[in-house]
Design brief:
Elements: H1 2-8, H2 15-28, E1 38-44, H3 50-62, E2 67-70, H4 85-96, E3 99-104, H5 110-120, E4 127-131, H6 145-157, H7 163-179, H8 186-195, H9 205-216, H10 226-235
Parallel strand pairs: 1-2, 1-3, 3-4
Helix pairs in contact: 1-4, 3-10, 5-9, 6-7
Length: about 250
Amino acid sequence: MGAVRRALRNVDVTPTEAMDILSWAQDELPAIYERDQTAYLVLGSYRSPYIRRVRSVSDRLNRRYGTYAFLIGDLDDIDVSRLPEFRVKFHLTAALADYITTIIEQDAGGEINELGKLSETEYFRKTHVLPRGYRWDTESNLRDREDVFAAAAQIEAATGADEETKQSELSKLVDRATTAGIDVTVDDLTEWLADHELAVPSYSWVQLNDFRLFELQDRCYPWLTEDELVERTDELPGSPRPQWEE
């Protein structure tokens, strides 16, 4: 009920509504209460074709020993018409799950709001993000000039940032590259961007900052192809997969 209060910003819940919510949790989330189960809440876009990859991650996690991975959309409705049902579901499942992972492929949609909730709440500590096409940005992940150029392309493609901000970020990127022992200048990056067409996802500036926050916490798992998504999913913490699969 603490999670419900957070969801509703302390709006009073009637005794009947409280009973309906608790009954729903007992009926829909029994595996979360199992002490020998590792529960994984999987978030992402439910629109096609994104939902297929969200389910792919959930299915892959469920191959592990003692793991219960699930989507909020697969749970029955709560019979509380007066209350914002999805908020209640989100906070209940996020509070009870052992881990949360979210698959990001675009700069719009409900999963963007979820990303903001996860990065700014107590759920942050157990969350891992899998952004498609995100390029490593911190010094420890910049290995050569190609990595720096790719990160520069991402900055250039970002929405919600003016030219002054982008130039400032390119300068900071060069500083990080220098720290990593890579010889590159802002002029090099600007010239390269002018000569190349950008083929990277266009994320918002807010998203890129959230990705970087998770990256600094070693909980960001970028991917590009579906094979890479499977590999990144296998790197997530939790119970191992059966040995016969390896």
